[in-house]
Specification:
By secondary structure, the chain is an alpha+beta fold. It is built from 17 helices and 20 strands.
Length: 521
Amino acid sequence: MNISFKFAQKKLLRGHNPSPIGAVVALSASEGAFGSWWSAKHRSLCHIITLSTTSPFVLKIFIGFFVSIPTQLPTSCVFYMSANIPASIPYLDITYKYCDFYAKFLHLNLPCLFTESHTCTWPARLNWSENGSISIDRVLKPFSGSELCVANCRDIEFGAHPTLTMTSEEYLAYWKTAGCDGTEQLLYLKDWHYFKGKDFRNYYSQPVYFSSDWLNEFYEFRTDCDDDFRFVYIGPGGTWTPLHTDVYCSYSWSANIVGRKRWWVFPPGEENKLIVSHGGQLPSDISQCDFADPETQDSDLPRCYVFDQQPGEMFFVPSGWYHQVLNLTDCISINNNWLNACNVTLVWRHLQAQLREVKKSCSDVESTPGWDDACQECLKAWEGWNYREFFVLLKYILISRWLRLTVQEVRQRLPTVAGIPGGGKVPLHVLDEQVESLLSDIASSEPLLVKWLTGDTLDSRLQNFVDVETTTSVSSIWQHDLVEATRTIRSMVVNEDLKRLRLHSRGPAAWLWKVVLGGQV
């Protein structure tokens, strides 16, 4: 007999901070496979996970409960990355060196603004603007007949704006009549995968400062899903994003194409003062709160940067920094999320913290066979990915940086899969087998890789990167990538949750992970 574990929860907009959420766990005797579905109208995500049991009787339990699964990383994990908080947001012009940004902002996890000179030649700034206003017809034209998910900024539900689905034509009509038809709605088209299936370079140039991007590189490598972390945000004046940290505890950058935004940005740990002053809950809207200056010490008020972002400027948001954003005028922006060697440790710690919350929320049925796998499915539902996906990402980075290969070159080195034609979609679990097989072959033929993975010390080479000329910086960054991917893989293979999942002990590279563990599996 099978027991289906039904985990139903309110799923917030990706990256937004949740308040306590309603969730339901139901155990019922049934047959059936794992499935999932979105309810776009209510933004609820339901997952059914099939578990096995030897119980001789039909078990049916219905449990209703409230849980709070925080998306923020515990502040102790971020503090060491965010030392020496500046008194104001630094402003970097086009002459600022990449190596300086890497060492002084990425590595130290500190925010900064970039001047308009960095984006002035972008095609999007030329084509999406007309006399300083948004050319909404040009922006929406490629999506004629498409359905769009928009947020109504008049309301807040569970810490996020409720959403509705509209066609591009309906949103265009709303835009042209907003404020004139007496509508109560204030609609924000956000988290829009505008560039999916397109070459983003036809719209903007990837800033060199943000070019070390493991996340989008990994999703380009995968063929099981058509996803990316490049977004367009477009909304009339008054639309806003509630207080949140970014998805996966990643970095993000936001470039204003047209319009002006106001930002409220909090150094790590300051959100705790907001929780204390708001009855134990993190508020969604802090625009009317009182704050202390960033350089103030020992204040009961939260320290906060408040500043306006002008057209063409880019803002870098570090990992784990809470922020709220208001469109002061009609705005369109390009936003990217990403991670790399500088924040992968924070991302890994955040993922572990989220799994702990998932397990705590559903501890009532912890003894059910298959519980660890079920928790990974719930983690995937809540966080957007799980341990397997993160482990595959790290193994891909390890291979590509060790061999100095591009995405396409690594893909060409993967072993073929029976029944899947070249260029076909490869499920993640199959891709994992391919990656492990390639890694095993490399390690078997290159003892230096095994020595590298089991070495006592890892030199990050960060100082080397700062000292070298820009022409050789890519090599230095890839060396840093290799170091931090290795460091994080080591942390993963000794993790007790990963051991119970046997993600390191049942693939082609199991022998390698056994060596890394010193013979322990």
